[in-house]
Specification:
18-stranded antiparallel beta barrel, single chain, 21 strands, two-stranded antiparallel sheet
């Protein structure tokens, strides 16, 4: 049935191209544009929970330059080069392999696009994708490298208020098929894939989405994620940002399930002060169900944005996570902004010791913005619970970051 799946994919893609192209529009040439960014960050890392250990000082540098070239008003390409490195480690002009460790020197993004009028668009190549609040699909902008996906992504305007977005991303190329037990070529590809489909209702202010993470080489693993996302301002100054998602899937030996609840609600006052409360909950594995794993898979998310700036839980944990937070943001004069978060962390399922409390994190930051230039500094303090780390010292982390965009 491999040929049928391939033909079906080709038919869907051609139908999408045809539907978009049918719109037609005048093509007016435009100029090539150049964009870029230079970012420097100093981090002071004392997150070991051991006061006897020295803090680790690390300098990061990320440089990007992008070229957007359009052959007409409805077709073109974007290419972005990136160099990211830890300063002082192999300095000079030595090149590093793409997406290896903390380094990337080469093409960060490269894709072509086609967009006739306002009916739809198609992109193909390597691209950085952030959807909704990046809780499940994010660009990981804080990272010195960032995340990119490779494949095809398209959008289609179904009506004035309804939009459809879809994508098929190949997460790895193994360049061979699955082998059967007798070493003959089987009928299953082993390249892991990520598929997404999103329907947005602009007037109602919410999206419905479905994702499929598929890795047939990993014991025929398939994980489906279905959910809804909404972000709105109401009653003049109140706002909310919320997402709920459910997962189901299996491999040859195990069933998978999970649930996510992510919701932030707050108020913006006349003086610019914003106060909000956050709940971020993901299910954990129940040890009593040996044939099922209930830990929610965070997929391609941007963890730094939600679960504390110190990134203790950025990869998720098998017991699941309950993050309750209060957030404050206050604009000062002359482009200065103050921010502060306090998080209370616990597990969704009890840890091996029967406890669930993880600890409390305080994050503070101040930022100055002056046109394309910005500079900011921040401090994180984590007080671990004895239920998690018995006798652990307070962890600390700080940073100073400057950036220029052009």
């Amino acid at each position: 049935m491999k040929w049928f799946k391939c033909m079906l994919l080709v038919v869907v893609m051609l139908s999408t191209f045809a539907a978009i192209a049918a719109a037609g529009c005048d093509a007016n040439p435009v100029d090539v544009t150049i964009s870029g960014q230079a970012r420097y960050r100093l981090e002071i890392d004392g997150r070991s929970f051991d006061a006897a250990e020295n803090n680790d000082w690390m300098q990061y540098m990320r440089t990007r330059i992008g070229f957007s070239a359009t052959a007409s008003a409805n077709a073109g390409a974007f290419i972005q080069f990136q160099d990211s490195r830890i300063l002082g480690l192999n300095p000079g002009t030595q090149a590093f392999n793409n997406n290896t460790g903390n380094y990337e020197t080469g093409v960060h993004q490269a894709y072509l696009w086609y967009k006739p009028c306002d009916k739809g668009w198609v992109k193909a190549g390597r691209m950085s994708v952030g959807l909704h609040n990046e809780r499940l699909v994010g660009k990981v902008g804080w990272s010195n490298i960032g995340r990119t996906e490779e494949g095809v992504m398209f959008g289609r305007k179904l009506s004035d208020d309804v939009n459809l977005t879809g994508a098929a991303f190949q997460l790895q190329e193994n360049n061979r098929d699955q082998l059967n037990d007798d070493e003959t070529i089987g009928d299953r590809y082993i390249d892991p894939m990520f598929y997404l489909l999103n329907v947005g209702f602009a007037e109602q202010g919410f999206d419905l989405f479905g994702y499929l993470l598929k890795n047939e080489a990993l014991n025929n693993y398939k994980l489906f994620t279905f959910g809804a996302y909404s972000h709105r301002t109401f009653a003049g100054s109140w706002f909310y940002d919320s997402m709920v998602a459910f997962q189901t899937g299996s491999d040859d030996d195990m069933d998978y399930s999970g649930m996510l609840i992510n919701a932030e609600i707050g108020d913006r006052f006349d003086n610019g002060l914003a106060l909000s409360g956050l709940i971020d909950y993901t299910t954990g594995d129940d040890a009593s169900t040996a044939d099922e794993i209930e830990t929610f898979n965070n997929l391609l998310y941007t963890g730094h944005k939600w679960n504390g700036y110190m990134d203790y839980f950025v990869g998720g944990i098998s017991e699941g996570l309950m993050d309750l937070a209060l957030r404050v943001k206050y604009p000062l004069e002359n482009g200065w902004t103050l921010k502060g978060d306090v998080h209370s962390f616990s597990t969704a399922e009890d840890m091996a010791n029967g406890k669930s409390s993880l600890g409390t994190e305080f994050d503070f930051a101040v930022k100055k913005t002056d046109g394309p230039f910005s500079i900011e500094g921040g401090l994180g303090i984590f007080s671990p619970s004895d239920d998690w780390i018995d006798g652990g010292d307070t962890g600390s982390w700080g940073y100073l970051q400057s950036m220029v965009n052009f």
